Amino acid sequence: MDRDITFPPSDTEAASFYALQQSAAQAVPLTVLTGFLGAGKTTLLNRILNGGHGLRVAVLVNDFGSINIDAELVVGIESDGDVINLANGCVCCNIREDLVAAVTQVMARPEKPEFVLLEASGVADPSGIALAFMNEDMRDRIRLDSIMCVVDAEQIFAAPEMMELKLRQVAFADMLILNKVDLVTQKEIERIKAWLDDRFHRYRLVQTSRGDVPLEILLSVGRFDPSRLDGTSSRDQSSHPHDCDGHDCEHSAHGHRHDHLQAFKTWSYETDAPLSLEPLREAARKLPASVYRCKGVVHTAEEPGRRVILQVVGKRVDITVGDEWNGKEPLTRIIAIAARDGLDGVDLRATFDRCRCSSVS
Ligand SMILES: Nc1nc2c(ncn2[C@@H]2O[C@H](COP(=O)(O)OP(=O)(O)OP(=O)(O)O)[C@@H](O)[C@H]2O)c(=O)[nH]1
Fold this sequence. Notes:
With 361 residues, this protein is α/β, with parallel strands linked by helices. It has helices spanning 11-22, 41-49, 69-73, 96-107, 126-132, 136-141, 163-172, 186-199, 215-218, 260-263, 277-285, 345-353, and strands at 2-5, 28-34, 57-62, 83-86, 115-119, 142-152, 175-179, 202-207, 264-271, 291-298, 306-313, 316-324, 332-339.
């Protein structure tokens, strides 16, 4: 095992980053943020966008549900049109062509981006994404720079039935961002590292809270190694291109097809009727354990002029008052992602309907 805890950036990473800031390279670097649902990808994305690098960045955000909440939560980009919204599927498989089309479109802009950031959906298998950029036509325009996997230190061992996917995400990344370390003890962090050591021969890891990682580690680091894709074809994404320790690998994907659409169910909710905050918090707390992720932008009776952001990751509920609606009609949009058989849409709708202001006595 050869673990490389990366902090601060190496000389090569720093040099590469500063060269990017000064050069107009032919192929534009693309960084992929991956990691399981709610791990902190959008938080990291916002950190990067607001990091003062001065680069012209194109942002692509993929949400698995039919409504792209993440695209609304991206801050620090000049206009709404600068965030390209890829919703209702997963860019690693069933909407991979949409991803290629979106990247082609941003590269054709008169002001070509100097950097492309892609936030994958929390259910994405990064090998499928990497494949999208490997054809010759794409390779001339886009250079896959790095695939970073955000790992939720608090939830890593939650939802054991999802461990195979989580491992695939970790395995394919060239950098692990162990996030949310503020929510766990030092002992827990050591346990996670020991667990990773048991499974991977070699990996790079940086631990952080709220994605607070130096930009030099994140941008234009040239870490992605295309040989990781050897044996992975566009028809079969089941190969296992990582450094896991063969004899005790828990990663049962060897030779099996990985199909997200079978494993998950998404649900969405929209209403223009204001919701009440406390019932909303209560409803979020009582979501079934099979709901891995719930999030939304909410129109509330208490804060009618501002967007209220609902975040649920596992059992952790976070409700915050965000910015103003900026001339848009207030509208509540909530999505939930659950295990395939773990979501009763009618029941969930009734739960959130009961939070409507008029229904609260
Ligand atoms: N305490 C704590 N909360 C965090 C940290 N990073 C992110 N969060 C919170 O975790 C929740 C999920 O974060 P996101 O950045 O939306 O996660 P994500 O990976 O983009 O989620 P999906 O796109 O739905 O998969 C939000 O409420 C964040 O504010 C952290 O380091 N510490």
